[in-house]
Structure to design on (135 residues):
């Protein structure tokens, strides 16, 4: 399957919009290397195999790393949630969770280890709670 990926500009734009929505005007990148990781690593192929072979693992990577890398000075968790939903939408899926489920997901990722095991759990959650949209 051919995937559509987010760009650095997409993440920066989402962070800016998230901060504007909450009345905050400052968007500052404090960890540009982390931004590169989030953009490039889901696309990586090693020895002919994708590092993250499913849409769900790619989306979970984006969510987890956007939350944990603290790329921006503010709004990292909100940005992570929105860019994950955007990534899924770009690839033909819509995440269907209530506000409380979304908050619980983000709190779980925030308070859990930055590990492969947690990423797998997030991938399963995203897959179970996403529906195919018409493209």
């Amino acid at each position: 399957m051919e995937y559509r990926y987010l760009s650095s500009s997409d993440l920066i734009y989402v962070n800016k919009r998230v901060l504007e929505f909450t009345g905050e005007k400052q968007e500052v990148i404090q960890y540009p290397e982390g931004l590169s990781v989030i953009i490039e690593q889901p696309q990586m192929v090693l020895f002919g195999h994708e590092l993250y072979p499913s849409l769900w693992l790619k989306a979970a990577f984006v969510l987890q790393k956007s939350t944990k890398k603290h790329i921006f000075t503010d709004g990292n968790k909100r940005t992570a949630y929105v860019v994950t939903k955007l990534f899924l939408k770009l690839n033909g899926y819509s995440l269907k969770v209530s506000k409380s489920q979304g908050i619980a997901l983000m709190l779980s990722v925030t308070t859990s280890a930055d590990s492969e095991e947690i990423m797998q759990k997030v991938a399963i959650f995203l897959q179970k709670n996403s529906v195919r949209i018409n493209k």
